[in-house]
């Protein structure tokens, strides 16, 4: 916009209002008021939007073995920091030991059959590699679900069983969350969709540390708009090497969407119709202040 706007009015301007809807009786009512004029000029402003969110561990999981059995030992407690691959739980080993015995027997039988095949003393149809392979896969499965390890480094956030209790897959033994790296999701109005891109940087502030500014990065811009709220979701990656932030904390995110050309109106100049949500301003035209909704 190349020209400025004079908003409100100068001293001793005529304020023009509307009369009745009946054109035959419509009259202009004038009243002299002393008001202040403000010249509005186009300028560039930074467009920053702030959203509230709840922090989450970047990776979170329930430690829930796929086999049911007695818990021999749980090696960690809530609050324990664990490394990737660290042993967390040991279940009863009866099924695993039985599978080992069966697998070893099949290995011996398979080796014997291979030797006989080479000498021609047994038919090829007797050779059963598939049964041995299935036994090996079952052994790996039971090994993984009897000696349960951490799939990533994190902290134990919950413990639902004690040693000696019978474990059922309906309730996890432990809960594990990553805290050195956090995530958050925010919902942004659809009007900003063209401006929000992957890898955009943003600031994260917690009320617990109001003087600290944490950096985040948009890693996913979800491709659809919610038809009910007309918002879209983004996922934020928040490095947390100091471990000051924790999953479950409330935080504010500030996203900078660049600069735009705009005319900024002082809030004192925006008036509200009594008994209505309608808002309006007065704009100077000549020597008269005209009401603009």
Task: Write a brief structural summary.
The chain is an alpha+beta fold. Helices cover 15% and strands 41% of the residues.
Task: Produce the secondary structure layout.
Elements (H helix, E strand, L loop, with lengths): L4 E4 L4 E4 L13 E4 L3 E4 L2 E12 L1 E2 L2 E4 L5 E6 L6 E2 L4 E5 L2 H26 L9 H18 E3 L4 E6 L6 E2 L6 E4 L3 E9 L11 E6 L7 E8 L9 E9 L10 E13 L8 E2 L6 E7 L2 E5 L1
Parallel strand pairs: 2-22
Antiparallel strand pairs: 1-4, 2-3, 5-19, 6-15, 7-14, 8-10, 8-13, 9-12, 10-11, 12-14, 15-18, 16-17, 16-19, 17-18, 20-21, 21-22
Helix pairs in contact: 1-2
Structure in words:
It is a single chain. This protein has 2 helices and 22 strands. Strand 21 and strand 22 form a beta hairpin.
List keywords for this structure.
alpha+beta; seven-stranded antiparallel beta sheet; five-stranded mixed beta sheet; 2 helices; 15% helix; disordered N terminus
Strand order of the largest sheet: 5-19-16-17-18-15-6
Q: Could you say which overall geometry the principal axes of the C-alpha atoms support?
A: elongated
Please state the structural category.
alpha+beta
The proportion of residues in beta strands is: 35-45%
Runs in which pLDDT lies below 50 for 5 or more consecutive residues are: 1-5, 8-21, 23-27
Q: Can you count the helices?
A: 2
The Rg value, from CA coordinates, equals 35 Å
The whole-number mean of residue pLDDT values reads 81
Largest sheet: 7 strands, antiparallel
The count of strands amounts to 22
H/E element sequence: EEEEEEEEEEHHEEEEEEEEEEEE
Task: Indicate the percent of residues in helices.
Answer: 10-25%
> What is the terminal-to-terminal distance?
19 Å
């Amino acid at each position: 916009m190349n020209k400025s706007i004079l908003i409100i009015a100068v001293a001793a301007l005529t304020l023009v209002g509307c009369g009745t809807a009946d054109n035959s009786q419509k009259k202009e009512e004038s009243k002299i008021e002393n008001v202040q004029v403000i010249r509005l000029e186009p300028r560039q402003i930074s467009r920053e939007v702030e959203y509230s969110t709840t922090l989450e561990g970047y990776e979170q999981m329930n430690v829930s073995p796929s086999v049911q059995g007695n818990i021999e030992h749980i090696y960690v407690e809530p609050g324990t920091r664990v490394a990737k691959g660290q042993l967390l739980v040991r279940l009863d080993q009866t099924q695993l030991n039985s599978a080992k015995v069966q697998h070893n027997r099949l290995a011996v039988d398979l080796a014997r059959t291979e030797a006989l095949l080479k000498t021609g003393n047994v038919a090829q149809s007797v050779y059963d590699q598939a049964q041995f392979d299935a036994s090996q896969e079952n052994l790996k499965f039971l090994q993984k679900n009897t000696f349960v390890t951490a799939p990533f480094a994190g902290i134990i956030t919950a413990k639902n069983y004690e040693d000696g209790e019978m474990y059922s897959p309906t309730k996890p033994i432990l809960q594990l969350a990553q805290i050195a790296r956090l995530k958050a999701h925010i919902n942004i109005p659809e009007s900003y969709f063209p401006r929000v891109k992957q890898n955009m940087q943003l600031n994260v502030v917690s009320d617990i540390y109001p003087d600290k500014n944490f950096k985040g990065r948009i890693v996913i811009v979800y491709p659809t708009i919610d038809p009910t709220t007309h918002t879209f979701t983004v996922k934020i990656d928040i490095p947390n090497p100091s471990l000051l932030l924790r999953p479950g904390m409330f935080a504010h995110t500030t996203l900078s969407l660049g600069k735009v050309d705009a005319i900024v109106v002082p809030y004192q100049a925006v008036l509200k119709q009594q008994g209505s949500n309608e808002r309006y301003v007065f704009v100077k035209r000549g020597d008269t202040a005209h009401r603009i909704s």
